[in-house]
């Protein structure tokens, strides 16, 4: 990842956390929603706003088989709110 992409992700991440706080989400909710954003960022090494449908499917397919359904739903919600 380039420095510009990292800077873009950092900016998007801060905005995401700020928006969740403005919506009155609990700190624990903000933490797990933000974790979903960081997970997908680490997997694809690019800001999540440029991901394609196939990449989301590649992220969620193994997640369903390795994590609880509640984790899958939390990740889905975290990315939805993004």
Compile the SSE list and pairings.
Layout: H1 3-22, H2 27-44, H3 53-66, H4 69-81
What does this structure look like?
By secondary structure, the protein is an all-alpha fold. The chain contains four helices and no strands. The chain has helices at residues 3-22, 27-44, 53-66, 69-81. The longest helix has 20 residues, at 3-22. It is flat and about 30 Å long.
Structural class: mainly alpha
Percent range for β-strand residues: under 5%
Mean pLDDT level: 92
The strand count comes to: 0
H-E order: HHHH
Q: Helicity level, as a percent range?
A: over 70%
Broad shape: flat
Give the second-level CATH assignment, the architecture.
Orthogonal Bundle
The parts where pLDDT drops under 50 for at least 5 residues are none
Main pleated sheet: none
Quick one: CATH class?
Mainly Alpha
Kindly report the CATH topology. DNA polymerase, domain 1
Rg over alpha carbons: 13 Å
Total domain units: 1
N/C terminus separation = 20 Å
SS element count, helices: 4
Summary?
Helices cover 79% and strands 0% of the residues. The protein is an all-alpha fold.
Question: What features would you highlight for this structure?
Answer:
79% helix; flat; DNA polymerase, domain 1; mainly alpha; 4 helices
């Amino acid at each position: 990842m380039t420095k510009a992409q990292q800077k873009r992700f950092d900016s998007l991440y801060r905005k995401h956390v700020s928006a969740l706080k403005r919506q009155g989400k609990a700190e624990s909710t903000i933490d797990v929603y933000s974790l979903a954003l960081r997970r997908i960022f680490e997997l694809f090494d690019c800001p999540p706003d440029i991901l394609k449908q196939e990449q989301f499917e590649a992220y969620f397919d193994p997640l369903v088989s390795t994590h609880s359904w509640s984790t899958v739903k939390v990740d889905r919600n975290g990315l939805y709110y993004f």
